[in-house]
Design goal:
The complex is a heterotrimer of chains A (429), B (395) and C (325). Chain A contains 17 helices and no strands. Chain A has 429 residues and is mainly α. Chain A has 2 domains: 99 residues, Serine Threonine Protein Phosphatase 5, Tetratricopeptide repeat, CATH 1.25.40.10; 279 residues, MetI-like fold, CATH 1.10.3720.10. Chain A is elongated. About 7% of the residues of chain A have low confidence. Chain B is mainly alpha-helical and 395 residues long. Chain B has a single domain, classed as Orthogonal Bundle (MetI-like fold), CATH 1.10.3720. Chain B is built from 16 helices and no strands. In chain B, helix 5 runs parallel beside helix 9, helix 7 crosses helix 11 and helix 15 crosses helix 16. The longest helix of chain B has 39 residues. Chain B is globular, with a radius of gyration of 24 Å. The C terminus of chain B is likely disordered. Chain C has a single domain, classed as P-loop containing nucleotide triphosphate hydrolases (Rossmann fold). In chain C, helix 3 packs parallel to helix 5. The longest helix of chain C is centred in the middle third of the chain and has 18 residues. Classes of the chains: A mainly alpha (429), B mainly alpha (395), C alpha/beta (325). The structure holds adenosine-5'-triphosphate and magnesium ion. Magnesium ion (MG) binds next to helix 1 of chain C.
């Protein structure tokens, strides 16, 4: 199926306002063909179509997609009153006054139904509708995302790192003897001298102190993974919430949030982490990640995302969404949030890089007592190479350094894929 | 325009003040112990108390805060807890940082923009993909490792010293300078760096003016590469005129390591942002029209697409500035470059609060200044900003 | 063919977009010509390939598009094999174009004057600065803008003014042919009308050839002498405006006309044809219109009708011209 430019709804709305109904309906039909569950398109279509029956059909479709759409149910009620009048008119002209009583009952029945639609939904039913809609959108977006092979590669990368976080405990308890493969005290007495290059016994070689590099890397992965992920999620959540609030309330709230973000942005995250780290030397990676994420989330991420959010809210597109039956919540969750998510993903990538590097850095300088993460592996390589004078320990340096880049690369590729989801102009390629 | 800038500046000062206040309390409340605990390890309790009274550390936090505030208002930086006037410390450590930060940022920005522009124009080419990947890998690499790699490559296997680390932080100094050369002169490295920077800035400003006039008169473009080269040439001849060329070159032989590292680390981000921005602009209607007008490809790309794509990148630069500064700090402490960053780590380690607070103040002022410059550039490039302001000024 | 009397001759033009799902034949075997000083219209539903034709004529296609076959002769020279450098010399000089979106057609960071000058410096550099300035002033007058506005930036213009400025820009190098791709759709109704009149008057006054593209047959009728009707990447019928309105041959044209009450009447809703335009990724075999055609027979489903001249100057591609059996 051909991709549909994102501004079709907007265009259609403009045509509708200019009275070019046929053009508007063409665009809407195209949109609906592309996504039969497009609530706004159906709703707008109910204004654009000329025939009353078709209008009613369109509104009914809206309600089938989202039975909680208040505007649509009101409109359906209005339309059905019109329908009744028209029918009544016809019957009056053809058969005199006889036909009216049953129609009145039909109408009251109808309104009763509508009341049920409005208020009679049980909680689970609502949830089911929501879940269903969510799933539908998710599938659609997933397809777009999956078109990009690089984005899938990114997902795989991050997934592999996720797997690696549990690899160490498993290997340790099955095949790796603790005397050899302990990340701190391990030493392989069977080989000499250390470090040894990669081989079958040590897949990535050993470091200057005779420790297996792979086991050290694996043991360090959970720490880094947790920090990166926590920071990413925290920055995205804080940034998204603040920027949505700024865009939705505007005015004073917006000013306050922007100024707050301006202050936060001055807080140099690594410096803050040094301060926290000296106090809480055994700080858990989760808290550290959270700390980093909130700091950057309320600062840079909010500033970047707010700019975008404001732009979205002021788009005529929002106006179109509004006439298409959107209340405040609807607009925030159905329009603002989806358009902001890819940007949040990009910020996540930046946060992952920043958090992982900052954490590596403060443990590199021995501020927190993190025993093993990728930063300390690099640090150890430097230090012990200097002490024992064995030359550059590339075997332990390169894998650890690559881990930093690959981890961040995974997130970057994912964010690129999400960018495609958000901006349909790019999809064609 | 000026009114807008002044307003921006005052608001920023207030934010800076809020930030510093926060940091003052945050550091002292969160960090365990104080300067005396760190410094006077061997003293007994009475001796420590005496030292505290001497340094004013026995006073309540609020009291010290207002004392510090009073100093800032009087533009008096005060003394470090070791007794050295902070102004002297700053005279020593700010120039090296500025050298790396200013020149590095400008170069990284230009390289990043240029690469971003070129790669996004021919997105599908293998070269573009390699460059993008390379930028990404550099941008996401671990700074100490990158510094090591650069040192290794340029010194062909030379030793890399881990500065600080668990063994405690080492005092920063210019190791690697030619002692004999510096013995002959009265100047300190920082003074030389200041002169060097002045030469660069003056020649850049002057050449910009010339370029502007030349382009207005002849309606043609000066190639950017040639322009940058000219600035370099002028700056170097400026050094010669001041008679500091030997010293300057000597400094450059050690300064380029943090500089190159910083550029490698920073350009990737600019490149990625520029790419994203170019991608949005590339398909826009006015770029299509520019093509339809039969303009040469390079004009369409540079004048029409890149000029517009630059605007969002500039506003992103404002946001990235603090991160760039912390990047410099990290790199400095990795190579032991005796700048503001290394100094800040040391001060934090000793809980030398006057130095920490004033360093943060300076960092804040540098980033505010940079922000103001970016605002001016953005207004120069974007008539929408320029005129919006013009209108509000007159109504 | 040496020097032709036509400004533009398009012959068997085939263009497709490469997409992940396969090629999209957006322009399929299209043949038409535009005489000197003639205004023709192209009409068709959204997505039928009108813009694709226009972009092909300027060779401004996106990177995933290829011209597979056919000739595009401008003043007799085929431009299809022309390298980019030579093509650049002909763009704007020979063919210029006004795009659909008025709001985004001007570069926000340059003054309107600079953007017009830029094109003139490229194509008519022999003019002196004064001559160029005079030219711009007269163009501004022509499109109904105050020449003193020329030093302003696009964001200081309204949508209508911008589109006028774009038209002035398109006229700046005295092109032989101007393509107007739905130049009024992004504007509101009142401005639409006045710009439309202006375009028509200017075209008459300068005696310049024009291709006017629109989905709105009423607009087309107002500005053009001949009309081409497009359906799913193909030109299905082309003739004088009179013929198209009063003796349409192709059932699709007939359907379009029947939906259209009168040229001057208010805009009312098009009673949409049953069915939908085909997916260009997998067009139906035979005549592309057959699933929606009331006169469909077996042959329509199997063979694509030739595009040929039925009466003098009246071209169409249909097995049952005029609905005959
Ligand atoms: N860059 C592209 N890549 C792939 N397909 C494209 C591209 N541009 C257009 N198409 C497809 O080609 C077909 C023709 O598009 P075109 O823009 O020429 O239509 P149009 O008649 O101008 O429509 P409209 O009236 O909406 O402007 C459409 O089906 C469209 O989806
Ligand atoms: Mg079009």
């Amino acid at each position: 199926m051909d991709p549909i430019p994102s501004n079709h709804l907007e265009k259609a709305y403009n045509y509708y306002r200019n009275g070019q109904l046929s053009r508007a309906s063409q665009l809407l039909v195209e949109l609906i063909k592309h996504d039969p569950g497009h609530e706004e398109a159906w709703y707008l279509l109910s204004y654009v179509l000329k025939d009353l029956d078709r209008q009613i059909y369109a509104v009914q479709r809206v309600l089938r997609i989202n039975p909680l759409n208040q505007k649509a149910s009101i409109r359906l009620r209005k339309l059905s009153v019109l329908r009744e009048e028209e029918d009544a008119g016809e019957t009056l002209s053809s058969e005199t006054a006889e036909g009216s009583p049953p129609q009145v009952t039909r109408y009251t029945e109808w309104t009763r139904d509508q009341q049920i639609t409005d208020h009679g939904f049980s909680h689970t039913q609502r949830l089911k509708f929501r879940a269903h809609n969510f799933w539908r959108r998710f599938k659609m977006n997933w397809n777009i995302f999956a078109q990009s092979r690089l984005a899938i590669l990114g997902l795989i990368l991050v997934f592999i790192f996720g797997l690696l976080t549990i690899a160490y405990p498993i290997l340790r308890n099955t095949v790796w003897a603790s005397s050899v493969y302990d990340p701190i005290t391990g030493f392989d007495m069977k080989v000499f001298p250390h470090p040894v290059p990669p081989g079958s016994r040590h897949l990535l070689g050993t470091d200057t102190l005779g420790r297996d590099v792979l086991s050290r890397l694996l043991a360090a992965t959970p720490h880094t993974f947790v920090i990166g992920l926590t920071a990413a999620v925290a920055t995205a959540i804080v940034g998204t919430l603040l920027s949505m609030a700024a865009a939705y309330f505007q005015g004073n709230v917006d000013t306050a949030i922007t100024n707050l973000a301006d202050v936060f942005i001055m807080l140099p995250a690594p410096v803050m982490m040094v301060i926290i780290g000296t106090r809480f030397r055994e700080i858990s990676p989760f808290v550290l990640g959270l700390f980093y994420g909130v700091l950057t989330g309320a600062g840079g991420t909010t500033l970047v995302m707010r700019a975008q959010a404001i732009q979205i809210v002021s788009k005529p597109f929002m106006e179109a969404a509004q006439i298409a039956g959107g209340g405040g919540r609807h607009i925030i969750f159905k329009h603002l949030l989806p358009s902001l998510l890819p940007l949040a993903a990009l910020q996540m990538m930046v946060a992952v890089t920043g958090a992982v590097v900052a954490d590596g850095f403060i443990s590199f300088f021995g501020i927190t007592r993190t025993i093993s993460n990728w930063g300390t592996i690099i640090y150890d390589a430097f230090i012990y190479a200097g002490i024992s004078g064995t030359g550059v320990p590339w075997y332990s340096l390169v894998p650890a350094a690559m881990c930093f880049s690959l981890f961040a690369l995974g997130f970057y590729l994912i964010s690129r894929g999400l960018h495609r989801v958000a901006s349909p102009e790019l999809r064609r390629r | 325009m000026t009114r807008y800038l002044i307003r921006q500046f005052t608001i920023s000062l207030i934010k800076l003040f809020v930030f510093l206040t926060f940091m003052f309390f945050f550091i002292q409340i969160v960090m365990p112990g104080d300067f005396v605990d760190q410094f006077a390890m061997g003293c007994d309790a009475a001796c420590r108390e005496e030292m505290r009274v001497q340094l004013g550390l026995d006073l309540p936090l609020w009291n010290r805060y207002f004392h510090w505030l009073g100093q800032v208002v009087r533009l008096d930086f005060g003394e470090s807890m070791f007794g050295e006037p902070i102004l002297d410390i700053f005279k020593r450590v700010i120039p090296p940082t500025l050298l790396v930060f200013v020149i590095g940022t400008v170069l990284a920005f230009m390289i990043g923009l240029w690469l971003g522009k070129v790669t996004s124009w021919r997105e599908r080419g293998i070269g573009s993909r390699l460059i993008t990947l390379g930028g990404l890998v550099l941008f996401t690499s671990f700074p100490p490792w990158l510094t090591y790699l650069v040192t290794y490559l340029v010194t062909k296997g030379g030793v890399f010293q881990v500065v600080g680390g668990r063994g405690g932080l080492r005092g920063p100094n210019f190791t690697g300078l030619d002692r004999l050369l510096w013995q002959k002169v009265e100047l300190s490295p920082s003074e030389v760096i200041i002169t060097m920077m002045i030469c660069v800035v003056i020649s850049a400003l002057f050449l910009f003016l010339l370029k502007f006039i030349y382009e207005r008169l002849t309606k043609s473009k000066v190639p950017t590469l040639m322009f940058v080269f000219l600035i370099g040439l002028w700056a170097v001849s400026g050094w010669q005129m001041w008679g500091i060329d030997d010293l300057a070159f000597d400094i450059m032989t050690i300064a380029y390591i943090p500089m190159v590292t910083y550029i490698l680390l920073a350009f990737g981000e600019f490149m990625l942002i520029m790419q994203a921005s170019m991608r949005d602009v590339k398909n826009s209607e006015y770029v299509q029209i520019a093509r339809a007008k039969g303009l040469p490809e390079s004009t369409v790309r540079d004048q029409h697409a890149a000029r517009n794509a630059l605007l969002p990148v500039l506003s992103r630069l404002v946001i990235s500035l603090p991160y760039l500064i912390t990047g410099v700090v990290i790199i400095e402490s990795s190579v032991g470059w005796p700048g503001l960053g290394t100094n800040l780590w040391n001060a934090l380690y000793w809980q030398n609060m006057p130095v920490v607070m004033n360093t943060l103040l300076i960092v804040g002022i540098i980033s505010l200044g940079a922000r103001l410059i970016i605002d001016v550039i953005a207004a120069y490039l974007d008539p929408r900003i320029r005129y919006q302001d013009f209108q509000t000024n007159h109504t | 063919m040496t020097v032709s009397e036509n400004v533009l001759d398009v012959k068997n033009l085939v263009m497709h977009y490469r997409t992940r799902k396969g090629p999209v034949y957006a322009v399929d075997n299209v043949t038409f010509h535009v005489g000197k000083g003639e205004a023709i219209g192209l009409v068709g539903e959204s997505g039928c390939g009108k813009t694709s034709i226009a972009l092909s004529l300027l060779k401004l296609l996106p990177t995933n598009a290829d011209i597979l076959n056919g000739e595009i002769r401008i003043m007799g020279d085929d431009i299809v094999p022309l390298p980019e450098k030579k093509m650049n010399k002909r763009r704007w000089r020979d063919i210029s174009m006004v795009f659909q979106s008025a709001m985004n057609s001007l570069n926000p960071v340059f003054t309107v004057e600079d953007q017009i000058l830029e094109a003139m410096l490229e194509h008519v550099p022999h003019l002196s600065e004064e001559e160029m300035n005079e030219k711009i002033d007269s163009l501004f007058d022509l499109v109904g803008l105050d020449p003193s506005l020329k030093t302003q930036y696009p964001h200081q213009y309204s949508g209508g003014m911008r589109q006028r400025a774009v038209i002035a820009m398109a006229l700046s190098c005295d092109p032989d042919l101007i393509i107007a791709d739905e130049p009024t759709t992004a504007l509101d109704v009142i401005v639409q009308d006045s710009i439309l009149k202006q375009i028509r008057d200017i075209q008459k006054e300068l005696n310049m050839a024009m291709i006017y593209i629109s989905h709105d047959i009423a607009v087309i009728a107002e500005v053009s002498e001949r009309v081409g009707v497009m359906y799913a990447g193909k030109l299905v019928e082309m003739s004088s405006t009179e013929n198209i309105f009063h003796n349409p041959i192709h059932p699709y044209t007939m359907a379009l006309m029947s939906c259209f009450p009168s040229i001057v009447g208010e805009k009312t809703e098009l009673v949409t044809l049953p069915g939908e335009p085909p997916d260009l990724l997998a067009p139906p075999p035979g005549c592309r219109f057959h699933p929606r055609c009331p006169y469909v027979t077996e042959i329509c489903k199997e063979q694509d009708p030739d595009y040929k001249e039925h009466t003098q100057g009246h071209y169409a591609a249909c097995w049952h011209p005029g609905g005959e059996k």
